[in-house]
Amino acid sequence: MTVRMKGKSIDSLSNLNQKEIKEILKTSTLLKSQLARGEEHLLLKGKTLAMIFEKPSTRTRVSFEVGMWQLGGVALYLSAGDLQLGRGETIADTARTLSRYVHGIMARVFAHQTILDLIKYSTVPVINGLSDFTHPCQGLADLFTIYEKKGRLSGLTLAYVGDGNNVAHSLIYGCSKVGMDITLACPKGYEPNLEVIIEAKEEGKRTGSHVKVTNDPIEAVRNADIVYTDVWASMGKEKEYEKRSKIFKPYQINTTLVRKAKEDYLFMHCLPAHRGQEVTDEVADSKNSVIFDQAENRLHTQKALLSLIM
Ligand code: CP
Ligand code: NVA
Questions:
Q1: Which 3 state secondary structure label does DSSP give 238?
Q2: Which residues pair with 50 in a beta bridge?
Q3: Does domain 13-135+296-309 sit in CATH 3.40.50.1370?
Q4: What is the Å distance from ligand 1's center to 228 Cα?
Q5: Which residue has a Cα nearest atom 7 of ligand 1?
Q6: CA nearest neighbour of 263 among 216, 292, 225
Q7: This prediction's pTM
Q8: 253-282 pLDDT, tens per residue?
Q9: Active site residue 230
């Protein structure tokens, strides 16, 4: 049976059920192979996506823009500072107005509440392109990449080492939905949101996934199938950079640490990476590293998502 997702907004992977995630991954495989064969797949001919950015981006901006074009539609880059939002127009009025022009809205924001407000006041589907709380599009590309490389998702173990941030939250939700185990090693005070852990543990009872949080990177990485990290200071936290650099130093992914993982482990990073900090060049450029496959897969998974919801 086909999974109906038209009109659905995505603020977090928590919004998607297992069937919907499988449908997105299946559609991603199809669209990726069609693109590789040079076959047209104009599933969104004549449709328009508004993309609001409160923060910088390379991957999200380019993959959404190129993706919409490949699907036969158009994407509009809207810097939040250039919109009337920057002069005090409300999110609600911005959402109502954009809904009269476009078929979908993607937004990269600071406060997660901004995404929730866009969803509340839009009459078109809204996609979270990263908020301080979560990064669901990254999570989908990550699951797809793991599936491509390992041929399965359930039964694998992912070790996330570093800041319990937006990317960590997407991975926790994503793993819990597909039956993958996840262990996070974060410094004290930088652990992921407790509510996310509680929700994932509940979901894990149905899917067989286990979530664990520790302060010990070696414990997390031991025997892992996937070793994942992200920057120590996310966008908006730049002022904490020096303080965080000291605290996070023992959490660097380097050759000594990855020796604890399985021999055929995957190294993953959402990018941009701060090489020499959260990961060494040796690991980021090793044969185990799939960081640019992940970046590429943003394109295919987002095209799948757009074609299913718009
Ligand atoms: N991973 C990711 O979202 O990258 P950008 O910040 O470049 O969009
Ligand atoms: N955690 C990072 C992810 C960037 C894609 C940030 O929010 O800056």
A1: helix
A2: 76, 105
A3: yes
A4: 15
A5: 58
A6: 225
A7: 0.98
A8: 999 999 999 999 999 999 999 999 999 999
A9: yes
